[in-house]
Amino acid sequence: MEVALICSQPDRFLLGNRSKSSEFFISRCSSSSRGPIARKNCRIGRTRCGMASAMAGASANPSVSDVITKSRVSDELMPQIMSEALVWSSLHGLVVGDRNSQRSGTVPGVGMVHAPFALLPVSFPKDLWKQACELAPLFNDLVDRVSLDGKFLQESLSRTRGVDSFTSRLLEIHAKMMDLKKTEDVRLGLHRSDYMLDAETKKLYQIELNTISASFPGLGSLVSNLHRNLLNQYGENLGLDTKNIPENASLSRFAEALAKAWNEYNDSSGGRTVGVVYFRAGYSPDDYPTESEWRARLTMEQSSAIKCPSISYHLVGTKKIQQELAKPNVLERFLDNKDDMKKLRHCFAGLWSLDDSEILKQATEKPELFVLKPQREGGGNNIYGEDVRETLFKLQKEGNKGLDAFILMQRIFPASTPTHLVRDGVCRRDYTISELGIYGAYLRNKDRIIINEQSGYLMRTKASSSNEGGVAAGYAVLDSIYLS
Amino acid sequence: MEVALICSQPDRFLLGNRSKSSEFFISRCSSSSRGPIARKNCRIGRTRCGMASAMAGASANPSVSDVITKSRVSDELMPQIMSEALVWSSLHGLVVGDRNSQRSGTVPGVGMVHAPFALLPVSFPKDLWKQACELAPLFNDLVDRVSLDGKFLQESLSRTRGVDSFTSRLLEIHAKMMDLKKTEDVRLGLHRSDYMLDAETKKLYQIELNTISASFPGLGSLVSNLHRNLLNQYGENLGLDTKNIPENASLSRFAEALAKAWNEYNDSSGGRTVGVVYFRAGYSPDDYPTESEWRARLTMEQSSAIKCPSISYHLVGTKKIQQELAKPNVLERFLDNKDDMKKLRHCFAGLWSLDDSEILKQATEKPELFVLKPQREGGGNNIYGEDVRETLFKLQKEGNKGLDAFILMQRIFPASTPTHLVRDGVCRRDYTISELGIYGAYLRNKDRIIINEQSGYLMRTKASSSNEGGVAAGYAVLDSIYLS
């Protein structure tokens, strides 16, 4: 039994209520924007006015790609789900600035568009999901331990310093703090560890570990809620069950960690002291257009405020350190528990610095098996395929120094699945691959560990034909997972 | 003690969290879009880097207009409050379609802009607020009783029928239902009664009673939340206290009423029977471009579905019925309780049909004291000032029939107060007047009254210089109230 909403244009009120009352669902009787028209397949009251039955019943526990491949997302249901998803996004803040709008990004609250998303969550094996979650506290702990070893950071990055002026400036600040023997009693980490699932080996590989400005904990939570809401309404028709979308509290977990850090700082002197500094910028050279920004960064680092991240945490997140940690016997420097080390190593992909001539030879012969990664953060910088070969030739010709700005990584080949991608209000079906980000929050005050946990997740999905994966960069869409 | 957010552009994540943790507030250290810059008036950690104290302390319980007039919303604070309000709006669905965006309104989720709002709530006397709330169940009850008197509706509107083809079509459907002796056992009303506060008499006058498609219960709740959130953060600086903004649960109350109506319909036969029909359109001739829409309306009315509103409830909301009810001895036809009648009459403004030659004379002599109202719903149709005189002359010349399409109403003169109006991301200060809408929900099943309550409110505020007041029409902004 349904509730009909008669409206002449997309309505705000009723749709907004729906999520408040799970038993209560509304459908639109108007199929055009021109007024109320009785809808197919529904009866108004006990006066029959429509006909045909709903979708055929679904079989037990199919995967999402089964659902999409077997066209369970039928021509009739599709526009309903799309419209519902778009309205839900508008009402719940699943929005971003629209690049097509001139003022967007300069003034908040204008020129908004829904964030790009996958219409349905993507299937993901339950055991690998569990593995990824279990890794979160281990990586949190590892970051903290490595951050305390200033010498390791300085030495590992010493050659990067020569070729990457940005990392060099960070190292300068770090060195100054070492000279001052500055310690951070309260340490706060809000990280995201990214993984891909290799189709052939069915293994989970870590792509990178973000220790600064890990993006989308807010939108990530929302996309999971969006998918849960859609399956609440259409799950029966699709044969998909809401309960298979894991809880995603990234937004509140990170907020809670920040609030707890603020509590730990515990300055009751009043006034406008800053107790916690969160960096949503500062990871890219573009964020430091003048010396003034570098001075501000130094001031913050010198202060007693809790930095998220501190300069040490920031440096631990560089690709060079990721590659150093993957070397034999390096984890042993920081950890004692053999089981933990085994778990961590199990997700390490092949990682090499470019002073390894054997790997250079392999990469120039079979570039399709490698990704060439520069130190720079943010999507759009990685080098793939034929470009790997060409770049390596070029760097070798210019001399070894240029090689120090890059690392080589084994390329992971995730399985390609059909997905409905929604961007700018338009839905298109494409074959896609996905990358799972697991958020981790860590807070300690001296020896007291206050938080060390998995704190939600973010799935990003992009067309298989695209190498790059940035959501903001326009390549990927936000997604969530459906455990299978 | 604060949390600093270092960002190079308006950030989603942190701001989104703030409302989750009331003790936890964040300020931006970046005053430009170019990177982190240490902010005035704040210290980072225990390293001083800023200066001057926050705003001067505020005196006890000022009105909002005091705050604005005495420039407590200072030059420094203003952009902060603005930015916070705009970001909050984006994250909480306080958004509407942007008329400047081509695709907005055709596809949900694209071309969105924050809904126009007042930056701070408007002061409103506590006793009149209480009066308005107490009237809600009385009007709910009155609508229900009048709706059962088909003869009264047909007779009262008989002359309107001759001049207003739209009302005539509604009356036709109503007459058919009378012929069929159709009864509605379950009756659901979601109303909004609008009031203005007369500056001179300090009396609350009803402007109109909306029984169909009462707008903004969703956005109304959100604006109250926005204001509460702003006062949580800036109230101390402004000398305003969150607790003076009354709770506004219009969204959930209306949703609950719809859900309960759905329960009352109680059709467990399964399938896609529509148990409740909510009209978000259908109140304007534009919603019936062809005969097909009229047939749909009739089909729905004939069905056993619960209509919100039924054709009878719809007709009770016409201005003609409002004017009839204000006539001496008419309330007595429907109500027994003298005290209730007194309360209702106390808020009735002067209302006249145009067959009263004495009032016609007065209105042509002093048109500034009257509003000429046509039957048509929606903002932008009322006639004020010199136009009243001219229209009356014209109607009289054309013969009495044209006069039947209008009623005259005493014009209310609310006090003008300074307000910060925010539209399209731009804030401007203007002198404004406000109109208070009180939502009422009513649900009964035969003799059992399930809901009869005040269900939240909506304040709309517009520049004093403008006669019309539609938010969607671009004249007014959404607002909430601050009890004084």
Description:
- The structure is a homodimer of 484-residue chains.
- The first copy, chain A, is 37% helix and 23% strand.
- Chain A contains 17 helices and 19 strands.
- Chain A is globular and about 80 Å long.
- Chain A has 484 residues and is α+β, with helices and mostly antiparallel strands.
- In chain A, α3 (77-91) packs antiparallel against α8 (217-238).
- The longest helix of chain A has 22 residues, at 126-147.
- The interface between A and B is large, with 113 and 113 residues.
Largest two-chain interface: A-B, 113 and 113 residues
Strand content of chain A: 15-25%
* C-alpha end-to-end distance of chain A: 31 Å
Oligomer: homodimer
Let me know the largest β-sheet of chain A. 7 strands, antiparallel
* Molecular shape of chain A: globular
Number of distinct beta strands of chain A: 19
- Which blocks of ≥5 consecutive residues of chain A have pLDDT under 50? 9-41, 47-59
Helix tally of chain A equals 17
Helical amount among residues of chain A, as a percent range? 25-40%
User: Measured on Cα atoms, how large is the radius of gyration of chain A?
Assistant: 25 Å
Mean pLDDT of chain A: 86
Going by helix content, strand content and strand pairing, the class of chain A is alpha+beta
